[in-house]
Amino acid sequence: MEANEHEHVIEVTDLRRVYGGGFEAVCGIDFSVRRGEVFALLGTNGAGKTSTVELLEGLAAPAGGRVRILGHDPYTERAAVRPRTGVMLQEGGFPSELTVAETARMWAGCVSGARPEREVLALVGLEAKADVRVKQLSGGQRRRLDLALALLGDPEVLFLDEPTTGLDPEGRREAWDLVGALREAGTTVLLTTHYLEEAEYLADRLAIMHEGRIAVTGTPAEVTATEPSRISFELPHGYHVGDLPPLAALGVSDHTTDGRTVRLRTHELQRAATGLLVWAQQAGVELRRLDVRSASLEEAFLSIAKDASADAAATKEYAA
Amino acid sequence: MSTTVTTPMSRMTALARAELTLLVRSKGTLVTALFVPLVLPVSAHQAAGEMDLAEAGLTIGEMVLPAAIGFSLLFAVYAALVGSFVARREELVLKRLRTGELRDAEILAGAALPAAATGLAQSLVLAAGCVALLDMKTPPAVHLSVLGVLLGLVLCTALAALTAAFTRTSESAQVTTLPLLFVSAIASGMMIPLEILPDRIASVCELLPLTPVMTLVRGGFTGDLSAYSALGAVATAVAWILLSVFAVQRRFRWEPRR
Question: Cβ A93–B26 below 8 Å, yes or no?
Answer without folding.
Answer: no
